[in-house]
Amino acid sequence: MSKQKIFPYLEVLFAVVVWGASFIATKIGVKDVTPITIVWLRFGIGVAILGFAVAARKEFADISDVEKEFASAMQYYKYYFPQARDYNFYSYISGLDLQFPIKVIDNNFLIGLDLYLGNTKVYDLSGFPKYKSEWLKRELIVPDAMSELVMGIMPEPEPAADLIHQFIEQGKRLYFIQAMIPEISDSLLLKYNEEQVEWCIKNEARLWSLMIENQFLFKNDVAVQKKFMDDGPFTSILSSAAPARLGHFIGWRIITNYMENNDVTLADLLMETNDQKILKKSKYKPER
Predict the structure, then answer these.
(1) pTM value?
(2) Start-end of H helices in the chain
(3) How far apart are CA 61 and CA 53, in angstroms?
(4) Residue 252 and residue 227: Cα distance in Å, rounded?
């Protein structure tokens, strides 16, 4: 069946699921709130989603640039993975599903266009922090899609992994995106502004020394992992100028060094699970 025929069925299925689920939610909700409150809540949600749909239709009236970048990325994907299957691309209004702006289901990309509207007050009114909303723009649709794609290729992450494993996993993800979109800037890849990228480069050796001196790499301390892996406005234990997610940056630099110093295919990199082997063979040691 062609994409033109499948898409209307997907739309209808989505509408049926949402509509059906609303009755269940209403039945549960009336136990705690009045029916009139539920009616107004449903009305408000409907207006909000309709507003997102109108804004998305306006922002994406012409998506030729996105389609061109998708086509280019998938050509690189086929180059690195010749046996890979083809993918279909569909857009929808996610209702601001910030956790999963893009989903990969089977061989289909589902893109929540309401999470790529760019500079809009919608995100401020929705309570999104600035450090997140500033990256909800169309330039990141394809990078985010490639990010979702590679997370489905790599082995399942270990539930209680140490810090170096998380560094390397995120480094692989970023390296894959860069391989699919070679022209992507470091700023878009890392979701850092130019000043934050410069801070990372300038302080790379200092960051690595911090990891070694405090023996952070092979710990699975949740508090330490949050400091270097979680998103936020900055990394508080360093300075307000230090961006968040510094572990992603370090992991990317380790993987880049590993690929430069070893004859390894991208497929082999993604499947390699020996973190200490990658670290050792990367010869990663930033100079002060």
Answers:
(1) 0.83
(2) 3-29, 35-59, 64-80, 121-125, 130-133, 141-153, 163-180, 186-190, 194-202, 204-213, 222-229, 246-261, 266-271, 275-282
(3) 12
(4) 17
